[in-house]
Amino acid sequence: ETGVTQTPRHLVMGMTNKKSLKCEQHLGHNAMYWYKQSAKKPLELMFVYNFKEQTENNSVPSRFSPECPNSSHLFLHLHTLQPEDSALYLCASSQALAGNEQFFGPGTRLTVL
Amino acid sequence: SQQGEEDPQALSIQEGENATMNCSYKTSINNLQWYRQNSGRGLVHLILIRSNEREKHSGRLRVTLDTSKKSSSLLITASRAADTASYFCATDNNNDMRFGAGTRLTVKP
């Protein structure tokens, strides 16, 4: 176990649904990340939070809405998604932004029907 | 956008053989990291090499970095079936970390 947990592990939703992905880290880290991993594509960085403040939004559509209430928790709120949003969503954390290894959660496998 | 590019995209070897994977990148970096991912799971950090380092070892892993060529290699010696996974390089440049598309390694028993 890496110390980063994600729930749910699998999620199937319709295009009109609203759902949320949750990530929690038990490592005392200050930075947290959301990534999207689609088949045969590089890992795509979506959002970065450092000390609860969003430091990067990598041109992500507004149907993805992140929330970081504290340094240990990170959410990704989903609404009106498209089938092409189906992917593995990975959360990661690191002690700091610069020069640190990232610890990844197991991911949420999202399917949008 | 993608920074590192791994080569080859897929590699299949016999148990006991060595596996070498390469990563090329385009801009300057502070460090380069290698990660491993088992199918459908999260990534696991393997090794980090800083821009002023040329080689690092960790168990059966050996990583080299050539900043003049903007390339890195990951060598896994005496491979095992359990090494079957995807391997990614990630370049870190001023807090901007970018992953490549990965090399899919299959080690046949």
Compile the SSE list and pairings.
The complex is a heterodimer of chains A (113) and B (109).
Chain A lengths: L3 E4 L2 E4 L4 E8 L5 E7 L6 E7 L2 E5 L6 E7 L2 E7 L7 E8 L8 E2 L3 E5 L1
Parallel strand pairs in A: 2-11
Antiparallel strand pairs in A: 1-3, 3-8, 4-5, 4-9, 5-6, 7-8, 9-10, 9-11
Chain B lengths: L4 E3 L2 E5 L4 E6 L6 E7 L5 E8 L4 E4 L2 E6 L4 E6 L8 E9 L2 E4 L3 E6 L1
Parallel strand pairs in B: 2-11
Antiparallel strand pairs in B: 1-3, 3-8, 4-5, 4-9, 6-7, 7-8, 9-10, 9-11
Task: Considering the chains and any ligands shown, give keywords for the structure.
heterodimer; A: mainly beta; 7-stranded mixed sheet; 4-stranded antiparallel sheet; B: 109 residues; mainly beta; 6-stranded mixed sheet; 5-stranded antiparallel sheet; 11 strands; globular
Shape of chain A: globular
Q: Between the first and last Cα atoms of chain A, what is the distance in angstroms?
A: 31 Å
Radius of gyration of chain A: 13 Å
> What is the succession of H and E elements of chain B?
EEEEEEEEEEE
Rounded mean pLDDT score of chain A: 92
Major beta sheet summary of chain A: 7 strands, mixed
Most residues in contact, chain pair and counts = A-B, 25 and 24 residues
How many helical elements of chain B? Answer: 0
Shape of chain B: globular
Which structural class matches the secondary elements of chain B? mainly beta
In short:
With 113 residues, chain A is an all-beta fold. Chain A contains no helices and eleven strands.
What would your notes on this structure say?
The complex is a heterodimer of chains A (113) and B (109). Chain A is mainly beta and 113 residues long. Chain A contains no helices and eleven strands. In chain A, strands 2, 4, 5, 6, 9, 10 and 11 form a seven-stranded mixed beta sheet that branches. The termini of chain A are far apart. The mean pLDDT of chain A is 92. Chain B has 109 residues and is mostly beta strands. In chain B, 0% of the residues lie in helices and 59% in strands. Chain B is built from no helices and eleven strands. Chain B has strands at 5-7, 10-14, 19-24, 31-37, 43-50, 55-58, 61-66, 71-76, 85-93, 96-99, 103-108. In chain B, the strands form two sheets. In chain B, strands 2, 4, 5, 9, 10 and 11 form a six-stranded mixed beta sheet that branches. In chain B, a hairpin with a 5-residue loop joins β4 (31-37) and β5 (43-50). Chain A binds chain B through residues 2, 4, 6, 35, 40-43, 45, 55-56, 88, 90, 92, 97-99, 101-107, 109, and chain B through 2, 30-31, 33, 35, 40-45, 48, 50, 88, 92, 94-102.
